[in-house]
Task: inverse folding
């Protein structure tokens, strides 16, 4: 009998009362574990997190909560081998791809522990300086930030079960807000295991961290004023979340990260060295985690005169990518997470092929130690448009994201057209620029800043030190406007703003002096 994973609610581990949903190995097709949330008392779970977990967290200072994060980090560092084994079995990722998720999540947790230690023994943050409200300087206004008295509900995506957990939970817990995690069902095992290790180690106050695996039915109904909701997933689901009665009725603060047609842009006049940097990054972004990254490059913009050369160079790199069972050390790209995801990628490819031609065919890759009839493996596919005019007309390429190892090469005639094509993505998480001219890159970066959460600028002088187009670093903002969801996460200390309530305290300067000293946010 396959193990039924337990949920952590109301301060104890509880299994659902139903048969559960099977989590499978996307390469071998075998059943691994089951998840189920049937019969859980969700109202009690949310109340326990708010009342018990929230009170315990708010009683601690930022530095004390940071020490708590440090302790959780140490617990999980001792279990890395187990996490890698789960990722291989449940996500079908090769070791390097598992590291992006697992070690990336642990690094982010450690980063916020360091931030919290720097905030010291405070229980509130100050936002800006005091300002006069009239001629008399005695009566002034000062803004403060206090932790929300609600619970933070996180509904996460399937592609990052480890990093997706901690990039949200770390700033929430540091802020003093209890967390309920609803991981995507397909890859919930790793999230549940990490939460279980931390809870069982006793390093967090009771009720501060909960995990519910299985169906999300009824979760949004439990939201109340002062609660917070963060969602990562499709734009269609995001629309349903924003319009949910509990969200609208109680003015629940919502953060959304949705679809994103991210771009890589080789600027006009770029050197061969800059072009090579773009080629390497595109090939890497197409194959890391089998292209299942919200920040992966989907559109590649190159001057029309260089389109053939870039297409050949990217295709040559992709041809060297071995695909199949991640347990085989010769494999460099594993599987998609499920048959449903594999079918979605195939359908998306068929759609884009209506307007684009195949430059490198993923079906040309033989599968290593994997059966095509049962596995969810697929080779990387590079599509392309024949000229700049076709780039203008390809509305499907600018409107549909294939969430897998797929990218499209778009030739352009000049900088103005390139900017227009990138903006047709209607808001993205990240765009990367490649050139040698500092002034040109700075101007282009500012042009794209209003439609992207992050602009990653790569010139030959930072070839060895740049952190990568798709790597989300906790020091920088993650999120994007428009199509990308309109949300903001991470960005160092900025991440704490979502979990705090800002208020203006208008009082005598004698009163306001007692608010300080507190570190400004």
Result:
């Amino acid at each position: 009998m396959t193990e039924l994973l337990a949920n952590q609610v109301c301060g104890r581990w509880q299994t659902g009362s139903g048969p559960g949903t099977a989590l499978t190995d996307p390469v071998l097709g075998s059943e691994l574990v089951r998840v189920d949330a049937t019969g859980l008392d969700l109202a009690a779970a949310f109340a326990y997190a708010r009342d018990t977990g929230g009170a315990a967290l708010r009683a601690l200072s930022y530095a004390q909560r940071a020490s708590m994060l440090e302790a959780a980090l140490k617990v999980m560092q001792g279990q890395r081998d187990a996490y890698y084994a789960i990722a291989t079995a449940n996500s079908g990722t090769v070791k390097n791809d598992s590291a992006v998720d697992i070690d990336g999540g642990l690094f982010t947790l450690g980063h916020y522990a360091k931030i919290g230690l720097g905030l010291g023994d405070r229980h509130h943050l100050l936002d800006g300086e005091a300002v006069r409200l009239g001629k008399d300087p005695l009566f002034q206004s000062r803004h403060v930030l206090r932790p929300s008295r609600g619970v933070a509900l996180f509904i996460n995506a399937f592609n990052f079960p480890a990093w997706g957990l901690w990039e949200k939970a770390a700033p929430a817990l540091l802020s003093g807000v209890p967390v309920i995690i609803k991981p995507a069902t397909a890859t919930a095992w790793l999230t549940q295991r990490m939460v279980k290790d931390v809870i069982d180690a006793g390093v967090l106050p009771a009720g501060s961290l909960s995990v519910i695996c299985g169906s999300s039915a009824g979760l949004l109904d439990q939201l109340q004023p002062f609660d917070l909701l963060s969602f990562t997933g499709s734009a269609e689901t995001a629309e349903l979340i924003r319009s949910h009665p509990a969200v609208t009725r109680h003015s629940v603060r919502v953060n959304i990260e949705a679809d994103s047609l991210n771009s890589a842009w080789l600027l006009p006049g770029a050197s061969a060295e800059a072009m090579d940097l773009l080629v390497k990054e595109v090939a890497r972004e197409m194959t890391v985690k089998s292209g299942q990254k919200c920040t992966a490059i989907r559109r590649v913009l190159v001057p029309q005169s260089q389109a053939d050369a870039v297409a050949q160079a990217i295709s040559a790199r992709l041809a060297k990518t071995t695909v199949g069972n991640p347990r085989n050390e010769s494999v460099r790209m594993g599987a998609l997470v499920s048959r449903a995801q594999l079918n979605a990628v195939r359908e998306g490819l068929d759609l884009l092929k209506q307007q684009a031609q195949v430059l490198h065919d993923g079906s040309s890759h033989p599968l290593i130690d994997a059966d095509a009839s049962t596995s969810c493996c697929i080779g990387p596919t590079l599509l392309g448009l024949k000229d700049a005019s076709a780039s203008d007309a390809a509305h499907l390429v600018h409107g549909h994201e294939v969430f897998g190892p797929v990218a499209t090469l778009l030739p352009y005639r000049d900088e103005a057209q390139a900017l227009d094509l990138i903006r047709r993505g209607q808001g993205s998480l990240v765009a990367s620029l490649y050139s040698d001219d500092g002034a040109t890159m700075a101007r282009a970066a500012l042009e794209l800043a209003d439609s992207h959460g992050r602009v990653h600028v790569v010139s030959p002088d930072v070839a060895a030190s740049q952190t990568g187009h798709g790597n989300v670093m906790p020091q920088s903002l993650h999120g994007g406007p428009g199509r990308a969801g309109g949300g903001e996460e991470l960005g160092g200390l900025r991440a704490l703003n979502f979990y705090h309530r800002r208020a203006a305290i208008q009082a005598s300067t004698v009163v306001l002096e007692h608010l300080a000293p507190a570190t400004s946010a």
